[in-house]
Amino acid sequence: MFEDLAYNARRHSDKLVFSLFPCGFAEKCFDGKPFFSDSHEIGGKKVSNMSHAKLSLEAYIAARASMMSLTNSKGRALALVPDKLVVPPALEKEACDILIADFINGTKNTMQGTAKPVVVPQLAGHDSSWFLLCTNRPVKPLIYQQRKKAKFVSKTQETDENVFMKKQFLYGADSRGNAGFGFWQMAFGSDGTGAAG
Asked: How far apart, in Å, are the Cα atoms of 140 and each of 45, 61, 111?
């Protein structure tokens, strides 16, 4: 039981970060637009980092090209190369087919190895959503800031009210931190509600 408490404390940051994915279509980031939006602006031009396409080889290629084509306000390439395809458990097969399989429907898979599939159990229930991230740079698309490391806490002294009054021993972990959105340019999200491609 104590090992599980430590395990859960260690995974708490993952829970906070992964909860951002489905919220990203509504919650705003630094430019006042939803993190995943078709109305971001760079140099006065509208730019999108979202779609409604179901996960497919064609949708992955389009999202990858969109991210890699981004420029700054002066027209210089941001040189973002996505390296993670984040999916819920329901899309694990599709993600592995796109990124690991040698062949797709009898044709050589030219996208093999272009990113790593990351299956996130916390995204269960958002079964059609998928996300492409560039995490290989010092700045990240999603940020976890830790203010206080997790510390094991117990209330087991005879003078603690829970022990004295109820004969209960309480154990927990105390930490402080939160997760938030970083640069939208480093992420692409699809809610998967539209057609493939």
From this structure: 23, 21, 23
